[in-house]
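Researcher: We plan to redesign the surface later, but first we want a full-length starting point. Tokens attached.
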């Protein structure tokens, strides 16, 4: 059964106090409610993980990081390893977000190392892909996404890929207020599912959760999520306000 997911990506927002207060309020929000139709995840900065773990323990909301190191351990000043993330109790890590690809020059082979380390340490991976505006205008978006998946992800075994969630995030829609139309999202999600089917077969492809990300908000979420290959969202800006984030979860 394909899982629906709504994951919040806080990016570099929230002080420790603000983040813990958010975690506490989202835990309270779902506490006495029936389980939401989607798995709810918050992906926080590293500094919040251990504190959030305490607040969300045994609750309905899962949590994860937004990145991990490409090496297992050792003399890598400033880095945080997959094993360290796992040791906080986190279940997920985002890998390959376009902001990491662009600002920190993370390429497909590096992202493949990070993904492998995350899986080896028992984390599930939200693996991001997506084209920039010029690539879509030049009708290269399929080619771009195909390369990102083949080089970043498709060296994994069929068993490993079961611990991957793919997030399609057209870069031109991230934080810009521009959203892919529901049809554009569906078309690319279907393409991603077909690529997965070619590589791993239809059972794996049918079970793969594919999230949409890029200016998803309460006012457009239901329409995007109504598409058959859209299994939820990776939410940036709108994940920072409890009211907006929970409204997006309800749109599932
Ligand atoms: P946005 O970000 O919702 O603010 O566009 C999405 C993301 O980058 O994951």
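Model: Full-length starting sequence:
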């Amino acid at each position: 059964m394909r899982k629906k997911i709504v994951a919040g990506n806080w990016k570099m927002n929230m002080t420790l106090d603000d983040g813990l207060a958010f975690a506490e309020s989202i835990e309270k929000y779902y506490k006495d409610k029936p389980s939401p139709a989607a798995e709810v995840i918050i992906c926080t900065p590293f500094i919040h993980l251990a504190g959030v773990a305490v607040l969300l323990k045994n609750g309905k909301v899962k949590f994860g990081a937004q990145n991990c190191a490409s090496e297992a351990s050792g003399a890598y000043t400033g880095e945080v390893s997959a094993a360290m993330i796992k040791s906080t109790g986190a279940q997920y890590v985002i890998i390959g977000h376009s902001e990491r690809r662009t600002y920190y020059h993370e390429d497909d082979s590096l992202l493949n190392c990070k993904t492998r380390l995350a899986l080896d340490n028992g984390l599930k991976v939200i693996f991001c892909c997506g084209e920039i505006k010029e690539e879509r205008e030049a009708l290269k978006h399929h080619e771009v996404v195909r390369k990102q998946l083949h080089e970043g992800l498709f060296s994994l075994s069929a068993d490993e890929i079961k611990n991957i969630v793919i997030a399609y995030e057209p870069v031109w829609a991230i934080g810009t207020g521009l959203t892919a139309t529901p049809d554009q999202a569906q078309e690319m999600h279907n393409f991603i599912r077909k690529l997965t089917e070619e590589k791993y077969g239809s059972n794996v492809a049918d079970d793969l959760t594919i999230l949409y990300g890029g200016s998803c908000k309460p006012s457009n979420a239901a329409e995007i999520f109504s598409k058959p290959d859209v299994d939820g969202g990776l939410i940036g800006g709108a994940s920072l306000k409890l009211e907006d984030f929970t409204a997006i979860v309800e749109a599932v």
